[in-house]
Prior knowledge:
The structure holds two protein chains of two kinds. By secondary structure, chain A is an all-alpha fold. Chain A contains 22 helices and three strands. In chain A, strands 1-3-2 form a three-stranded antiparallel β-sheet. In chain A, helix 4 crosses helix 6, helix 5 packs parallel to helix 7 (136-161) and helix 9 packs across helix 12. By secondary structure, chain B is mainly alpha-helical. Chain B has a single domain (9-149, 162-309), classed as ABC transporter involved in vitamin B12 uptake, BtuC (Orthogonal Bundle), CATH 1.10.3470.10. Chains A and B meet through helix 4, helix 7, helix 12 and helix 14 of A and helix 3, helix 6, helix 7, helix 11 and helix 13 of B.
Amino acid sequence: xxxxxxxxxxxxxxxxxxxxxxxxxxxxxxxxxxxxxxxxxxxxxxxxxxxxxxxxxxxxxxxxxxxxxxxxxxxxxxxxxxxxxxxxxxxxxxxxxxxxxxxxxxxxxxxxxxxxxxxxxxxxxxxxxxxxxxxxxxxxxxxxxxxxxxxxxxxxxxxxxxxxxxxxxxxxxxxxxxxxxxxxxxxxxxxxxxxxxxxxxxxxxxxxxxxxxxxxxxxxxxxxxxxxxxxxxxxxxxxxxxxxxxxxxxxxxxxxxxxxxxxxxxxxxxxxxxxxxxxxxxxxxxxxxxxxxxxxxxxxxxxxxxxxxxxxxxxxxxxxxxxxxxxxxxxxxxxxxxxxxxxxxxxxxxxxxxxxxxxxxxxxxxxxxxxxxxxxxxxxxxxxxxxxxxxxxxxxxxxxxxxxxxxxxxxxxxxxxxxxxxxxxxxxxxxxxxxxxxxxxxxxxxxxxxxxxxxxxxxxxxxxxxxxxxxxxxxxxxxxxxxxxxxxxxx
Amino acid sequence: xxxxxxxxxxxxxxxxxxxxxxxxxxxxxxxxxxxxxxxxxxxxxxxxxxxxxxxxxxxxxxxxxxxxxxxxxxxxxxxxxxxxxxxxxxxxxxxxxxxxxxxxxxxxxxxxxxxxxxxxxxxxxxxxxxxxxxxxxxxxxxxxxxxxxxxxxxxxxxxxxxxxxxxxxxxxxxxxxxxxxxxxxxxxxxxxxxxxxxxxxxxxxxxxxxxxxxxxxxxxxxxxxxxxxxxxxxxxxxxxxxxxxxxxxxxxxxxxxxxxxxxxxxxxxxxxxxxxxxxxxxxxxxxxxxxxxxxxxxxxxxxxxxxxxxxxxxx
Lengths: 491, 315
């Protein structure tokens, strides 16, 4: 069974290897199309950090990752994930108004406008929640589309009126790293500062309101105030990150690192630390990757990096990861298959009165209702795990291809006895102690026989006073039978 | 240079319908608007009941990579491949959200946010990698321009010119959606309100859910061209929420979609004519105005409560 798992893992590794190799090849092709573009020198340039623009972008991505990760962990635990999305869309009219107010693309006024619009959006959502029975998701949809519509209306209006320098506004939708200025960095730093201070000051209260609102209300924590503060901070975080990743992808940065961290952290402090680290890592990694290729936009690459980290961790994390669960399920399934085979073998030997130790595959096919190929495969498995040996039949039927014949090894025989014993004991237990009808107990026993532990079996045996036969009158192999090795010779 | 032009009723309401050319152009725009409103509104009523209002948002973002890949694979901006790619990507998006929700500890909202932003990021990256030889207008995908509907090529059927292609596609999809909802009304209704009951009476709950997602993806993709990614959400959410202030039964809400669609389209069209802005955005603004009006005027609105509260201050 272990060898099967390692085989599975080996297959996976090969598969992943091929995948990554092909993606590398693709990358190489992409990069090769650029003229004097060498990704080694680019990487060197990135790591040297001599370029002020590189330094600025990397620092910005780092700051954004940390602040989004911090606030995002509250977003994810409070199920506000789509709130970030809504807010990031809702700032659009503010951006447009800020633009009209300043008459040109001036970061400061855009920020102020976005801040006001985000605040208005937060107010609208809380008003809708307070005064109507509309569900949270619908009210988010309403605020999102209403604000965004107003924003687009204003933007198209600006285009029609013909302001000269309006091209920079596009960067608010997709983000434009090259236009990142030191003002934006200061904005990011201030946002991070506010978030840090808020979380440090209100850590206990936030914890209480997040996990048990009724309790926190009863000990006098201002729930609504904290909730509102959190919303404003989300808006702040969104606005400061706009220039880097753009309107739509900000919500990704809020959610993905925190969701990744939630896969393995149990305590809030650890969770905050992990998600801010993951955010920062994704920020830096994404900037680095986007720097390697030509035409690679930093914002979406940052998001892609963080979502790949998320999926990798989801698949590969120990014990609960999808891959591990799958492997585990497979090993359990193969164990059950082997046990069923052994049981069938026992039944066949029993039917022959424990005289003949050879079990033909034809018999197994008849009993299990399986095809020839399936039975051959299972016999192969048994032989592989040392529970049986297989030969070709000595007396083949006239018009059939040569049959495989199975003989259980002592180890296999002991195992088979144990399974049959589990099955029959359980049937007896159900009829005697739980008062089931004898014809109702088979299916249940069929499932439980694979999971009964030695201890439980002993207990049942003691309870039923070492029975010899099951409700159908068949023999229950006892421990002494098993340890003496062969039923056939003792009976 | 003034932001809001002077309101001139003659110019706003009569000028669009003054000459035969304008009438034929604008009626196509209006028809498109109506079709989009009705198709999205019908689906939206069920989506809102299921508390998945932002699923439309998620799917509409999620289809971006599908559109781009279809473009790269077929090398053309034809409707067929685009629609196919977008539908596949939309379904992939909704499947991944479902899968993530069931196979990981991630909650519903977070899994939605993770999946659609990842899809969208992939789409944007693909667009950026292909700049130079891709003339896909990102603005068009994001905002949509319903005013350009009449520019779509005409379909000729057996030598006869039967009219605008976009209109036919949207009309067909609207028809499919309305007739499927009528046919399977009971099943969709039961699964939307009480999945456990539906399961116990033997309905295939999961396949109905997927079927609804397919319809949502279809209507989203078809209306994308005219109203753009984000305003699809408006057309999904607003009609049913507005109607639910006055009616509590689903059939009435569904019927309400039709007059509301007419109001949104005509209101938006003339608003856009007045302000000289995007028609789709103006339609969403009209929908917002209708929503606020309904909020204020509905039988148990908070306005009445405030009035009643002021009358009896010691209560």
